[in-house]
Specification:
single chain; Rossmann fold; eight-stranded mixed beta sheet; about 50% helix; about 15% strand; globular
Length: about 350
């Protein structure tokens, strides 16, 4: 748990220094020097780096635009325009809470559509992690003509897990040990208890170091609203899934939670011709724990789809051993990265 928190904290703090400052000296809290787009009752702050085909990245829960800091320069270097933004209730946005009972990933998907339209980005390569991946999945299946490729890392598609043998018990365990207690703590204005409960479920330890708490607390509004929602985990319809034809990449950590392994399995069933990559020695926080490997897998996927263009039909069948092949390639990449880091 301590190692996982250290990775997340180091990542967030480094990201804060490597990107444009969120709040410039002399600004009052809530003001931001980042560019933003405005929609109906919502403002979204974002970062855009590079020129080329747009790659829009959607962060996970309790994160913000800085979650993708390690991916911006590498994408720009191979001639992509990398865009990362903060979802509605995440730092540094200061959007007022509106109708918490109806907030869900569908609202985030609609916000994403607004951002893409305002910035004239379509069609885009779409990348999402965790709850941001659920929003990305909803957007992609609702607007397939606006998506070049779709990369998802462990979206919480809980209704699909419920359909699996034994899946109902796994989902209920999540609600009983995490979601319901977290929502109760927020309702009682016990924000520290809410954060500790969430960390206990995801990491096995409820102790949150002060620095980690300071990094995560600015986005607690997201879960405060989400746990009060009556429909927090929507999924696309079967018809929408069948209508989506763009190439799909699924990323998963080999040490992720059983619930999330089931989520990835359910996605594999619905996108049978997807590419699935397992990130070695990684949990659900794979993008902060293993940013080099996740980024390398994403860029390789984008490069191959770009090189092949129309020569290969979307979702054409891949060899059965693709996951083993990809794991071997990633392990070799890890060795190369470590070797490059050794002083000579």
């Amino acid at each position: 748990m301590k190692q996982r928190l250290r990775w997340r904290l180091i990542f967030i703090l480094c990201a804060a220094g490597s990107l444009v400052a969120s709040e410039a000296p002399g600004q009052s809290p809530g003001q931001s020097s980042l560019p933003s787009v405005q929609g109906r009752g919502v403002t979204l702050h974002y970062i855009s780096v590079g020129r080329g085909e747009p790659v829009v990245m959607v962060h996970g829960g309790l994160e913000d635009y800085r979650a993708w800091a390690a991916q911006l320069a590498p994408l720009a270097a191979i001639h992509y325009r990398a865009i990362t933004y903060s979802r509605r209730y995440n730092f540094p946005n200061r959007n007022a809470t509106r109708k918490p009972a109806s907030y869900s990933a569908q609202v985030d998907a609609d916000d994403l559509a607004m951002l893409i339209e305002k910035l004239h980005l379509a069609p885009v390569h779409l990348v999402g992690h965790s709850y941001g991946a659920l929003a990305a999945l909803l957007f992609a299946t609702e607007h397939p003509e606006l998506v070049r490729t779709l990369t998802l890392s462990e979206p919480p598609v809980l209704p699909w897990v419920e359909e699996q043998p034994g899946g109902h018990a796994v989902v209920q365990d999540f609600f009983q040990r995490c979601w319901i207690p977290v929502g109760r703590a927020f309702a009682q204005h016990k924000r520290e208890e809410a954060l500790a409960t969430a960390m206990k479920y995801f990491t096995g330890n409820s102790v949150v170091p002060p620095d980690a708490r300071a990094a995560l607390e600015p986005s607690l509004q997201e879960w405060e609203v989400l746990t009060a929602s009556g429909k927090a985990f929507p999924v696309p319809s079967t018809r929408a899934i069948k209508g989506f034809k763009a190439p799909v990449l699924l990323l998963t950590g080999d040490r992720t939670l059983p619930l999330l392994k089931r989520c990835v399995a359910s996605l594999t069933v619905r996108f049978p011709n997807c590419r699935r990559v397992t990130i070695p020695d990684a949990t659900h926080d794979m993008w902060s724990e293993k940013p080099e490997l996740c980024g390398a897998a994403l860029r390789r996927f984008l490069r191959e789809k770009h090189d092949r263009g129309t020569k290969r039909a979307p979702h054409s069948r891949r060899p059965p051993a693709i996951e083993t092949t990809e794991r071997l390639w990633l392990n070799r990449s890890a060795v190369a990265i470590r070797a490059a880091a050794v002083p000579r």
